[in-house]
Amino acid sequence: MLPAFLATILFSLSVIFASRTTRMLGGTIANFYRLCVSTALLAIWAHAFGKGLGGGAFQVFFLSGCLGFGIGDLALYQAIPRLGPRLTILMGHCLAAPFAALTEWLWMGTALTLPQIVSGLVILIGVVIALAPREHLHIEPKALAQGIAFGIVAALGQGLGAVVTRGAYALVKLSGQSIDGGTAAYQRILGGLLFAIVPALWIMRKNRLKDQHLVFNRAVGPGNGYRRHAIWLWVLLNSLAGPTIGVGCYQWALENNPSGVVLPIVATTPIAVIPFAYLFEGDRPGPRFLLGGIVAVAGAIALAMSR
Known about the structure:
It contains 12 helices and no strands. Helix content is 81%, strand content 0%. The chain is mainly alpha-helical.
């Protein structure tokens, strides 16, 4: 399960970098640039060293990307500026585990046992504790409600995307072929990029932006303090830690393990992100978040062990 643990660390860093880019560019544009950079990097790998669009399950991987990278990440990047990186990643990763296990049971017939159902309920209880309003008095009620809604959608997208990915790998094996994690990530991100292009172009047109450089001019305007090269650095770091290397490790883990096992391990990301959030953001978790995070992650670990 080494690739799942590597993905956990990389996803923890990715959400911190994402928090920086969303503050500079806005959620939709930051997600769009991240996917563009990651698509270019993964395309180099897939067409030079991998299988490009081959492998026997391109359409299914593409669909998985529409759900995970597309719907899921669009919602994730709207939740981050409203909830912050810690709470967003807690909802996204912990809730994705029971959503994926339930979907895999309904679609692929992977039955859920009583311990798995109980573990899923423990995860939900932990997330509810962490979402306690008193823990987040600095967040306006409207922003908190919107962030929670986007967080749930993000978790659904990630969970469904993981299950569809499992189906894609099953199709690859049935066809007698193989596919590496980088190529699978590339085929998935193409679906996500399709979803990201439309809202990004709409926002650019709405703001009468003739080209992408105007977005950066706004971000580095008077009094902002960020230079153009610094923005690209954060975008690059976010792209590498998330959709490129992080998702490559994630796909590697899903290739040989059920999503109900991989996702709970990745669900420890809310704990792993705490020191990074403090180091980069100065964000200290309150007691209820710590309690809820521990409960949710414990439920995720129990779900993994029950498999």
